[in-house]
Amino acid sequence: MALANENYLKTPEISYFDEIEKRVNAYKITHPNSKLIRLGLGDVTRPLPNEVIQAMHRAVDEMAHVETFKGYGPPQGYDFLIDKILKDYRTLGVTLDKESVFISDGAKSDIGNIGHVLGRDNIIAIADPVYPVYENATIMSGRAGIINEDDQKWSNIVYLTCTAKTNFLPELPNEKVDIIYLCNPNNPTGTVMNKAELKKWIDYAIEHQSIIVYDGAYQAYINEDDIPRSIYEIKGAKKVAIEIKTYSKSAGFTGLRCGYTIFPKELMVYTRMGDQVPLLELWSRRKTNYTNGVSYIVQRGAEAIYTRKGKQEIIEIVNYYLKNAAIIRQELRAMGYETYGGKSSPYVWFKIPDEQSSWKFFQQLLYDYKIIGTPGIVFGASGENYMRFTGFGSREDTIEAMNRLRKGY
Length: 409
Ligand SMILES: Cc1ncc(COP(=O)(O)O)c(C=O)c1O
Prior knowledge:
- This protein is α/β, with parallel strands linked by helices.
- It folds into two domains: 11-47 and 309-407, Aspartate Aminotransferase, domain 1; 53-307, Aspartate Aminotransferase, domain 2.
- It is built from 13 helices and 17 strands.
- The chain has helices at 16-30, 50-63, 79-91, 107-113, 133-140, 195-208, 237-240, 248-251, 279-290, 296-303, 308-334, 358-369, 395-407, and strands spanning 37-38, 101-104, 124-128, 147-148, 153-154, 157-161, 179-183, 211-215, 241-246, 259-262, 268-270, 276-278, 339-341, 347-351, 371-372, 374-375, 386-390.
- The strands form five sheets. A seven-stranded mixed beta sheet has the order 2-10-9-8-7-3-6, with helices on both faces.
- Helix 2 (50-63) runs antiparallel to helix 10, helix 4 (107-113) packs parallel to helix 5 (133-140) and helix 11 (308-334) runs parallel beside helix 13 (395-407).
- The longest helix is centred in the C-terminal third of the chain and has 27 residues, at 308-334.
- It binds pyridoxal-5'-phosphate (PLP).
- The site of pyridoxal-5'-phosphate (PLP) has 13 residues, from helix 4.
């Protein structure tokens, strides 16, 4: 009898995304002619940069000729892309070794898979509210412990509660934790940690021999002073942090799939006997045995992001979404909503009036304003009574949605 990994059964049976779609579809059946506006989107909508498209066309042609055909590539990624990434880090004053860069098929896979190279008994700290994959990956890997049915919290996870009082930023835990997931700029709140705030986490991790899994998926959106573009801008970070990056939200690669993760050679984990092991070595073994890497064509597309034209196109795409976020933020504020984020992030997080539950407000937005948002509760218990709007829609839809809200539709 083949046994199931029952930890998988402990995660929600239907994802929040599917729950939203179910509700939207129910609405559409009774209102087939209604024009809905999606402001809940976590996916991008602008097309790929032309530089990327051209580079991929060239790479496709290479595949058509015996002289230039490419079979299996290096599991860690092609040097041509790794070199561009290293050069980009140097513009931030960060020097990394070539061996520390691992090209991935996007951030989500590495966030999910990092648990493979970390001991089962680590205590994990996760912000609340935050991107739900950190918690689900912890549950599926059998590390989460037992759920408390009352508050839906897991016994082996330390929740870093973010509220209006903490300006929706995580605060250092009182207890010792081993693995800390930090998302900066944060999804869903759009809030950002500055260098001083991040330094506190690095000092904590050094003191407790913990590691930080730093998710920089929205790094391209940072446009405020003093917010680091990489955690390695902060002294000591190479000893304690891996950094996960993706081209999804900057260059529109959500459908194409490419990103990278940095494992500095200085970053150590420990055996039960107390011996040090570079985490990089474990990850490298994992990569060699579990994957044959990311497609050549896609990596050529990613390389094109670093050309002068490519960089310019990315700025334009990101600015488009940032402008939408700014419109949402300003309009909501003018209507009296308490908002967070939306400055260095495509996400605007806002307080729902009258302490309504976030699913109830979701229904109200859908039925009264024909707007789809994302209820805060899906990102963690502390997201209740809040809602997330995003700048990933079109400009026209964003403006129209705000008009509807202002006029009461
Ligand atoms: C915080 C965060 N990390 C990672 C991801 C996943 O990114 P990717 O498309 O690279 O898998 C997302 C996607 O929404 C995200 O919000």
